[in-house]
Amino acid sequence: MRTSDGIENALGPADGSRVLTIRDLSVEIRRGDRVVRPVSGVHLALDRGETLGIVGETGSGKSMTGLAIMGMLPAGGRVAGGSIDFGGTELVGLPAARYRAIRGNEIAMVFQDSMTALNPTRRIGEQVAEPVRLHHGASKAAARARAAELLALVGIPKPAERMDDFPHQLSGGMRQRVMIAMALVCEPRVVIADEPTTALDVSIQAEILDLLDDLRSRLGMSMILVTHDMGVIARHADRVGVMYAGRVAETGPTPALFGHTRHRYTHALLSSIPSLTQDRREKLFSVPGTPPDLSILHAGCPFAPRCAAATNQCREELPALSVAGDGHTHACWHPVSSPTVRAHPTVRAHQPPATAEPVVVPERETPPRLRVVDLVREYPVGGRGLLGGRRTVKAVSGVSFDVAAGETFGLVGESGCGKSSLGRMLVALDRPDAGEVIFDGAPVTRMSSRELGPRRAQLQMMFQDSNASLDPRMRIGAILREPLAIQGIGSRSDRTARARELLADVGLPLSVLERYPHELSGGQRQRVGLARALALDPQVLVADEPVSALDVSVRSQVLNLMQRIQLERNLSSVVISHDLAVVRYLADRVGVMYLGKLVETGTTEEVYDATAHPYTAGLLAAVPEADPGAPSARAGARVRGELPSPIDPPSGCRFRTRCVLATELCASTEPPLTEVAGTHRVACHHPLRSGSGQPRELSAR
Q1: Which residue spans within 196-254 are E strands per DSSP?
Q2: DSSP string, 331-350
Q3: Terminus of the chain with fewer CB atoms < 10 Å: N or C?
């Protein structure tokens, strides 16, 4: 069945539980002479108490759909057609005054970036209380009391004291909780959560999503969860809408959609996800090409140019929604027919039909190319301590490890644990307060600026934010030539030839040379960042969160590229990330950092498959799997609470304030890194693995 039957199946029965119905919604945004169509013919529905997940790549229209519901389209934007029915009230064409009465009161939104969504000049108590005063006419005192109540509800510690804080005084997780409190303060019927955890660590992400689930259940709300993370959708959504190029490609109940994926795009997204059981000897599947330009009207299925199964029919005719089962619909001429494959220790989930070439892991050399010995880095802050001494942020506190030639060392941990500070010292962008970085036997930390000059070319960094690290006023060709010019290498024509070689190495067309960074996609900019880091043929590459801001499809392309180049050039790499699946795929050995210290090190297999530290176990337990049927027993092992202040870290074991195994010994004595088995080391008085490697149960003592 197609067309109208598919639409009705996608929307479900219109009974008394329906709170929101979207039919044939289209949005246009005029930009000068161009008209962009970010949403085209979207059909979605939301029932009372339900969580609807909307997933897709950047530019798929998922956030714009949420903004259309809120009546908050950007300048030049308008609803060009369709209907948004909110409990019997048609929102399309609603007078502005009536919309303002609904927005924030009956329909609220949790925005992606809490730092830009919150007013930096106003205290958080005022911002949370404002909707109550505007919509309910509450007095200042009553609104403040309501704000304190909501801050307590979302888990802000000591809410009465935090009411007078400014946003910059809170951590990322706390700011996101404030955003949730603002959205819920008027007890709306619908909450739209737009990428609410994208910038957060995996442990904080799990807490925020569990909090949203709990509040939705307790307050009887409905929620639209917008994200590009299929694992988040699998764990937290009741139903799913997959969007591509402004259209709904597939919808259905979460178990049905993940268990028997029908649309080729959905299948490609699932195939691109690196998992904790990923075999790093196999390349990740990646979706070829890029999403279409939504300012150009295309015939046929918008995914056809990237689909291996596309036919002339796909390129010429737009597929209508077809019914695949009860509530499960798809818009694909050649749907996937076999059930979705699940992951297990030896088979990667959603393995694409084509067999990838195996990745050869090189033999390691000795002595190490890079040696890190007892590095310490502290940053001064204002004020004095209790004893009158200078207060410092203890970013890195005595970290040691080695990296061999051709080896990749992964650093994982939450934001604020010191990973990026450590990375900057490795490439001599920052000098340590104590300890040494030894490169090819030479202590670079002791060198003068003149001595360091020739060595610096061999130590390069790939930065997290490619948009900020590339000069927006320079063309890509000039950006790639710049390191060569600074080092006095070659003539201008030689440098241009080298820039062309670098673009070929990272899989970009030569036309990119004449473009500016803003003219490239996020994945293309990240490739340029990698090319610039490779321009001087370094021996050590430090990649700081290299794929954290990328869609899953682009992420797999960049990860495959990084692994290929590392093997071809025999690079020694340090990959910094809070994404444990990414580190598992790239790294030969792993170090887990917590509050400036390494708490566990070993080969990737030792750390992931024979976890010894409760902190590592908590991080792994919080990783969302793209499988609704995955066991939830791991939830009890998750890391809870906020990271302590690095200005005044806890005595003894720094993790003890969040550890269910902590004892008096943990408070009084700092545990050293001791051997578990082989190269596996752990800094814990009560490790989850004994000296013989036997597991112990993670339960409170």
Answers
A1: 222-227, 239-244, 247-253
A2: --SS---SPPPPPBTTB-TT
A3: C
**Which residues are within 8 A (CB) of 493 and not within 5 positions of it... i.e. 6 or more apart?**
none
Distance (Å, rounded) from C-alpha 222 to C-alpha 206?
Answer: 19
DSSP lists the bridge partners of residue 281 as none
Give the residue from 120, 114, 116 showing the smallest Cα distance to 166. 120
SS3 state at 570 = coil
Tell me which residue of 680, 691, 543 sits closest to 599, measured CA to CA: 680
Q: Which amino acid is at 590?
A: V
What distances in angstroms separate CA 625 from CA 45, 231, 477, 617, one per listed residue? 25, 4, 40, 15
Task: Say which residue the tokens 């500070």 belong to.
Answer: 421
What pTM did the predictor assign?
A: 0.83
- How far apart (Å, rounded) are the C-alpha atoms in residues 53 and 589? 35
| pLDDT at res. 367 | 78
CB burial class (10 A; 0-12, 13-18, 19+) of residue 298? middle
pLDDT, tens only, 55-64: 998 888 999 9
For residue 305, the surrounding DSSP H or E stretch is: none
Tokens of 668: 């009084």
| Number of residues written out for the chain | 701
pLDDT tens digits, one per residue of 168-223: 888 777 888 899 999 999 999 999 999 888 767 788 788 888 888 988 888 889 99
103 phi and psi angles, rounded to 5 deg: -65, 125
DSSP 199: T
- Asked if 122 and 153 touch (Cβ cutoff 8 Å), the reply is no
How far apart are alpha carbons 570 and 458 in whole angstroms? 13
- DSSP annotation of 444 reads G
**pLDDT tens-digit series, residues 43-77:** 999 999 999 999 998 888 999 999 999 999 999 99
Mapping DSSP to helix (H, G, I), strand (E, B) and coil, where does residue 78 land?
Answer: strand
CB atoms within 10 A of CB 335: 19
